[in-house]
Amino acid sequence: MKKAFELFFSFFKIGAFTLGGGYAMLSMVEKAVVDQKKWIPNDEFWDMIAVVQSLPGVFAVNTALYVGHRVAGRKGAFAAMLGAIIPSITIILLLATVFREFRDQPVVERIFKGIRPCVVALILAPSLRMIKSAKVTWKTAIIPIVTVFLIWWCKISPAYVILAAIAGSLIYALIINKKAKEKEVKP
Question: What is the pTM for the complete model shown?
Fold first, then answer.
């Protein structure tokens, strides 16, 4: 039960102080989960991010569920999920009640314009760490470049790109396995 409370408060703190959604919270999650609490090793953390971002649903909730379950089973998953969503729900409800009256105020518009670049930086920093941990080389850099091109420029749904990547990976693995078996057969 102690772990469940720790998970709840860790993700509550992350949810309360993160602007910009799931990817913006990556740095805080990594610091709490990998560096401070040492619940998950660094290499597993980035593998988890790869899995979590390919699942349907809210990235922050999926991350909390994964970490919580990994650390303390179902109770941990539930506690971490609640910790991640309660701050967002509370803040959204509070903003919704007062935003209508203040949204056209010049000060409010300037605040939101000032927050946008910070959110970009909060998303960019963990993205660069993810590239480093994924061991992207100049040889393999073509994959993310083509992916960005297909999604952004060609307007292809990310779901199709993910399915194509899965199919390509399976075909590549089959070819590699076939070549390995052929080498074993030859004397």
Answer: 0.64
